[in-house]
Amino acid sequence: MSTVTFDTDGFVVDAEVVGDAFGIEPEAVPEKMRSGRITSRCEKGVDEDEGRWRLTFFSGGRALRLIVDAKGTILSRSTFPAHPPRTGPLDLTDLPRSPGGSGSSG
């Protein structure tokens, strides 16, 4: 059995793959995902990456990245320090302004 499968709801990744990457028991993975302590992102390949997907899981300051093909075969796997992407509304007033950008003239 492949460790990554597709269904109408999206991807299903074996909990053992995710658990191994974060040093947790596979049985704990579903609950941690439901509670938001493990989050994920899926990106579809385009152009030369057509037919591949990048699945990234985030937990405890670490990330697991899987590149998979259309059959669910894991083509590459990596782990690295990372924080989950921001979600929800962004406060654009906190963004730094670029030199010469809009703002008060002086």
Q: Mind sketching the topology for me?
A:
Elements lengths: L3 E4 L2 E4 L1 H8 L6 H7 L3 E6 L7 E8 L2 E8 L4 E8 L25
Antiparallel strand pairs: 1-2, 3-4, 4-5, 5-6
Structure overview:
It is a single chain. It contains 2 helices and 6 strands, in the order ββααββββ. The chain is mainly beta. The protein has one domain. The strands form 2 sheets. It has a 4-stranded antiparallel sheet with strand order 3-4-5-6, covered by helices on one side. Strands 1-2 form a two-stranded antiparallel sheet. Strand 5 and strand 6 form a beta hairpin. The longest helix is centred in the first third of the chain and has 8 residues. The N and C termini lie far apart (65 Å). The model has no long low-confidence stretch (mean pLDDT 85).
Main attributes?
106 residues, mainly beta, 4-stranded antiparallel β-sheet, two-stranded antiparallel sheet, 2 helices, 6 strands, 36% strand, globular
